[in-house]
Amino acid sequence: MIGRVNHIAIAVPDLEAAARRYRELLGASVSGVQELPDHGVRVVFVDVGNTKVELLEAFGEGSPIAAFLERNPDGGMHHICYEVADIGAAIRRLTEGGARVLGDGKPKIGAHGLPVVFLHPKAFDGTLIELEEVKPDFAPA
Amino acid sequence: MIGRVNHIAIAVPDLEAAARRYRELLGASVSGVQELPDHGVRVVFVDVGNTKVELLEAFGEGSPIAAFLERNPDGGMHHICYEVADIGAAIRRLTEGGARVLGDGKPKIGAHGLPVVFLHPKAFDGTLIELEEVKPDFAPA
Questions:
Q1: How far is A58 from chain B (nearest CA, A)?
Q2: pLDDT at B141 over 60
Q3: DSSP code at position A50
Q4: Which CATH number fits the domain that encloses residue A87?
Q5: For residue B104, what are the domain limits?
Q6: CB spacing of B48 vs A76 below 8 angstroms
Q7: Structurally, how many domains does chain A consist of?
Q8: Is A130 labeled as catalytic in the residue annotation?
Q9: DSSP letters of B98-133?
Q10: Of the candidates A90, A138, B51, B72, which lies 20 to 30 Å from B64 by C-alpha distance?
Q11: What's the pLDDT tens digit per position in B59-89?
């Protein structure tokens, strides 16, 4: 069911400083800053060739990463996003198997403009998992 | 400098249960269990096509993930491993830039039989980063 890792999201307290470290110390290819007010984050994309690392800073009121950054003031790995071909089928399989989909259990349009859901970290070893429907580019593992 | 994400490591309290969830709920391709006593872990590999997720359980005395699992009894994302072409050059660049390499600052042979170092999470937004030298298969980002 799950395909490629679309991105690994890392919450950071200072986006410009984090971007500079990835660029200068790790020699990575780092995008400019994008503000996504509807999603409560500012983000840069680190392109590492086979996937992306997204560095996220809280932006505005009610940011979905604000509580995480309060618990982890240095920042930390926030979630992993896997691609799926059919998010409705994925949700059915997961809920029938007892995994909890966050929110009302229905897909929302995520930061990339595609349908996403998040799975409760308790169901997957403390790891917050995002599923993103990416057809027609889906490549099964 | 950094290339592909070689793997994302997730520490789990119960490896067989975690492997079953990835296989049955996420429909992923999950390897059999490997015991790596020299590295203090039991591991399964989840092949998602563009990279690997490694589920790690503590194994034996002095496991490098035991303290993490004490702090995070449900498990959690433990580290990201990036490929580099020349680990000596990477260490020089990082230390000259002020990032701290864990241990004595020299590469060790990691769980894949290749030279690795770990970078202090304080230097990278609370994220533990492993660098693995993978020449001749290195693909720059």
A1: 14
A2: no
A3: S
A4: 3.10.180.10
A5: 5-133
A6: no
A7: 1
A8: yes
A9: TPPBSTTSS-EE-TTSSEEEEE-GGGGTT--EEEEE
A10: B51
A11: 999 999 999 999 999 999 999 999 999 999 9
